[in-house]
Design a protein that fits this description.
Blueprint lengths: L1 H16 L22 E2 L9 E6 L9 E3 L2 E5 L4 E6 L5 E6 L10 E3 L2 E5 L4 E6 L5 E6 L9 E3 L2 E5 L4 E6 L5 E6 L9 E3 L2 E5 L4 E6 L5 E6 L9 E3 L2 E5 L5 E5 L4 E6 L13 E3 L2 E5 L4 E6 L5 E6 L9 E3 L2 E5 L4 E6 L5 E6 L9 E3 L2 E5 L4 E5 L1
Parallel strand pairs: 1-27
Antiparallel strand pairs: 2-33, 3-4, 4-5, 5-6, 7-8, 8-9, 9-10, 11-12, 12-13, 13-14, 15-16, 16-17, 17-18, 19-20, 20-21, 21-22, 23-24, 24-25, 25-26, 27-28, 28-29, 29-30, 31-32, 32-33
Length: about 375
């Protein structure tokens, strides 16, 4: 079995090296934009942003918005999945989940919107009118975001399981049990799903049948989702480090930590132009050389940065617990612009069609362009 795993992972490293690096210009259909979770958009918003519209959801938002087909989709702590018109901000429809929606973020594919709730139910909702298509109940709360891969939708649960369900009717294709919560969103490339779990293990799982093709220790608790590219996975840990993990050799290539400030990394990394960009609970946004693990720059905000950065047009878009959306230069990390949403921002921005959409824990959704 070990030789099969090694051969499979070597092949996967080649596939990952060729994986596309960004969401299309006109859509941000899931958490981190693409199944590789790189946090990169091909859209190029204006250098000087202006507020296009605002929407008051009424309760906190930890769920990151999705953009597809001229619509914005966002989950609210009240348990509502709300669809808004991208251009006007007007409500298209509201769907009521059974319980509150936490960090699980919408995924849009094949005319449906998928999202998990804190009662452990994954919802498949028709994108046109917000009616229910099907639901599937896991054994515990869902904070992971769904990812659609072909005819399967993947979702992690706090029951320690990664599920693969049929997009058609929600029937179970397979499930993989781990030793702790599956909090992060699985990244997908080359027919394999990858995630670093709360069980301190890096997992690789074959999509076709749920067979585990690799399980390698990473030595620390991981709440973040991974970014895939160049045969590597990049992710932060609760041991105050960011890691580069070689998928082919199952080895940690480098470890990055701030030399003076030791705080966990909960934000999921963006990977763009040889740079890993990630927020830290040390109040900083860190930019790291993807090849060497050396710091390129760090930008200090006024509170923890759990929001996951998005890179578009050579700029970094990221929220902070200080209530601000920041725009930074990718090359040097200089502040180009900021906007105060008043409430803490832990959700990640969505970038598409020249628009930037972000939500706050005060329930405010703002579209810039």
């Amino acid at each position: 079995m070990r030789s099969i795993i090694l051969i499979g992972l070597a092949t996967l490293g080649t596939v990952l090296a060729a994986a596309p690096g960004g969401a299309p210009e006109d859509a941000w259909p899931q958490f981190r934009g693409t199944p590789q979770l790189t946090g990169v958009s091909q859209s190029n918003p204006p250098g000087k942003l202006a507020v296009r519209w605002q929407f008051e959801a009424g309760e906190a938002i930890d769920s990151s918005p999705a953009i597809a087909g001229g619509a914005v989709y966002v989950g609210v702590a009240s348990g509502e999945l709300v669809s808004l018109d991208l251009e006007s901000g007007k409500v298209r429809w509201r769907y009521r989940a059974g319980e509150g929606i936490g960090e699980s973020s919408p995924a849009v594919a094949g005319g449906r919107v998928y999202i998990g709730d804190l009662s452990g139910v994954l919802h498949a909702v028709n994108a046109t009118d917000g009616t229910a298509a099907w639901t599937y109940r896991t054994g515990s709360e869902i904070k992971s975001s769904p990812v659609v891969a072909g005819d399967r939708v993947l979702i992690g649960s706090y029951d320690g399981t990664l599920y693969a369900l049929s997009v058609r009717d929600g029937s179970l294709a397979w499930k993989l049990q781990t030793e702790n919560y599956v909090h992060g969103t699985p990244a997908v490339a080359g027919g394999v799903a990858y995630f670093a779990g709360c069980d301190e293990t890096f997992h690789a799982v074959r999509l076709s049948d749920g067979e585990r093709v690799a399980a390698a220790p990473v030595g620390s608790y991981v709440g973040a989702s991974i970014a895939l590219g160049g045969g590597r996975a990049y992710f932060g840990t609760f041991d105050n480090e960011v890691l580069a993990f070689d998928v082919g050799t199952k080895k940690i290539l480098w470890r990055y930590s701030d030399p003076k400030r030791h705080f966990p990394f909960y934000s999921s990394a963006a990977l763009a132009d040889g740079t890993v960009v990630v927020g830290g609970r040390d109040k900083q946004v860190h930019a790291i050389d993807a090849a060497t693990g050396e710091r390129k720059w760090a930008f200090m905000t006024r509170a923890r940065v759990d929001s996951s950065p998005v890179v578009a047009g050579g700029r970094v878009y990221v929220g902070s617990g200080d209530g601000r959306l920041y725009v930074l230069g990718l090359d040097a990390g200089e502040k180009l612009w900021e906007y105060d949403l008043a409430g803490p921002v832990s959700a990640s921005p969505a970038v598409a069609g020249g628009r930037v959409v972000v939500a706050s824990q005060d329930g405010l959704v703002v579209c810039f362009g």
